[in-house]
Amino acid sequence: MNKILLKRATLKNIKEVADLEKLASSRTYSGRVTEDEVKKFIKNQFVFLIMNQGKVVGLVAYTIIKKIVHFNGLVISPKFRRLGFAKQTLLLVLRKISKYPRIELVVHPHNNPALVLYLSLNFIIESWKNNYFGDGEPRLMLIKK
Ligand SMILES: CC(C)(COP(=O)(O)OP(=O)(O)OC[C@H]1O[C@@H](n2cnc3c(N)ncnc32)[C@H](O)[C@@H]1OP(=O)(O)O)[C@@H](O)C(=O)NCCC(=O)NCCS
Asked: Model pTM?
C-alpha cells in the first residue's frame, strides 16, 4: 500500500532532512549539505517529509513569495524510488496550491527522472538558466501549465 502523508518538517527533523539531501546530492541536484543550510531550509521554506506506513520515504519543499510557488526540493530515498511516491506527492501539493498564478521549479537538463516526471504532470520548459546555483551547472526553468 503506497499511500502517503505529508508531515511538515521541524528542527527536530534536521537529521532526516540532511540524510535525504545528502543521498540526493549530485551534479544534477544541489542538496543542502551542512547543518546550517539544513536549518535555514527548514526554517525558511515549507519542507514536508513524505511518510509511508510510518517511514520517511522522501521530502518535498517549496516557497510561496508574492503569489509565486517555487519548488525547491523533491527527493525520494533511493530504496523507495519508482513506486510512485514523487508523483503522488506532487499531485497532492499541486492540488493544495492550485490557486496560485505561477508554479515554477528548476531542474538540471540531464536529470531525466525528474524531467520525465514534471513533463508528465503538465509542466513545460520556459527557459534555460546558465550557472543557476553558482555551481557552473545549467538549469531549466519549468512552469506548470
Ligand atoms: C526524481 C525523483 C524525485 C523521482 O522519484 P520517484 O518516487 O522515483 O518517482 P515516481 O515513482 O513517482 O515516478 C513517476 C514517473 O516519473 C518518471 N520517472 C521516475 N523515475 C524515472 C527514471 N529513473 N527514469 C525515467 N523516468 C522516471 C516515470 O514516468 C514515472 O512513472 P512510471 O514509474 O509509471 O514510469 C527521484 O528520482 C529522486 O529523488 N531523484 C534525486 C533527487 C532529484 O533529482 N530530485 C528532483 C529535483 S528537481
From this structure: 0.97
